[in-house]
Write a structure and sequence with these properties.
Blueprint lengths: L1 H7 L3 E4 L13 H20 L5 E7 L22 H21 L12 E7 L2 E2 L5 H9 L5 E4 L3 E2 L2 E2 H12 L6 E4 L6 E2 H14 L11 E4 L20
Parallel strand pairs: 1-2, 2-3, 3-8, 4-7, 5-10
Antiparallel strand pairs: 6-9
């Protein structure tokens, strides 16, 4: 990675890469940290040492425990409950440490020559790749009944929308820091599944399952290796 950066000498790095296999991360801790922390730290050190460089990095609601009753603020203390969340938090910390180290040095003389970083915490991303919505639509075409978790709440975020927000921020003169980047509104996984399937059905997609057969269940009825936040709501003010 260092050789690659030195060869291309980018002025701006948009890091859209991540280890996101939340359950596998419980048994692949080293790999998760290599991608989500160590690689991120190398990129941060490179950009922090450049003049007017920009690092745009995407993080996650999984850095929080999910036990808070209201929307999380950027200033709330992170308490990740999974290895994935821990690795993403470590990546955030690696960025802040790299920039603080350079900007606190004797070489950082002029504020307008500082490089900057933006960490965008987001939630429930969907787009062209594999995601919850695509999984639900596939299952809806195969089964006549679905059971979906209804007591975990968050805000679905479009990858395209997130990219547009990130590009706008990276090209601005906004101060470095952590920012929550989610749309307004909230829903449960069950609510999102019902909406996606009803929308697809109204568009003429032939689906086996009817919306009344998409049954809400508690997360305890669908145990997974990694803990998920019950509250993924981020304050985006």
């Amino acid at each position: 990675l260092t050789e690659l950066l030195n060869h291309y000498q980018p002025q701006m790095i948009i890091n859209a890469s991540a280890y996101t296999a939340v359950d596998l991360a419980e048994n692949e801790r080293d790999l998760a940290f290599a991608v989500n922390c160590e690689a991120v730290g190398l990129m941060a050190k490179y950009v922090a040492s450049a003049s007017n460089g920009v690092l745009l990095h995407f993080s996650t609601d999984y850095v929080y425990s999910g036990l808070k009753k209201v929307r999380y603020l950027e200033s709330d203390v992170p308490e990740p409950a999974s290895v994935y969340g821990q690795s993403k938090l470590a990546g955030e910390q690696a960025i802040k440490e790299a920039f603080n180290l350079v900007h606190d040095s004797a070489h950082a003389t002029y504020q307008d020559k500082f490089s900057r970083y933006f960490i965008l915490r987001t939630s429930w991303v969907y787009g062209d790749g594999g995601n919850f919505i695509r999984t639900m639509l596939r299952l809806a075409g195969e089964r006549d009944q679905l059971k979906v978790v209804a007591d975990q709440i968050g805000a679905p975020s479009s990858a395209q929308w997130l990219a547009e927000v990130g590009i706008q921020l990276a090209g601005s003169r906004v101060e470095s820091g952590i920012y929550h980047a989610v749309p307004d509104g909230e829903t449960s996984w069950h609510g999102l599944a019902v909406f996606a399937i009803e929308t697809a059905a109204s568009a003429g997609e032939g689906l086996e399952v009817k919306s009344e057969n998409i049954l809400p269940i508690p997360a305890t009825d669908y145990p997974l290796p990694a803990k998920r936040p019950y509250n993924s709501r981020l304050n985006n003010q």
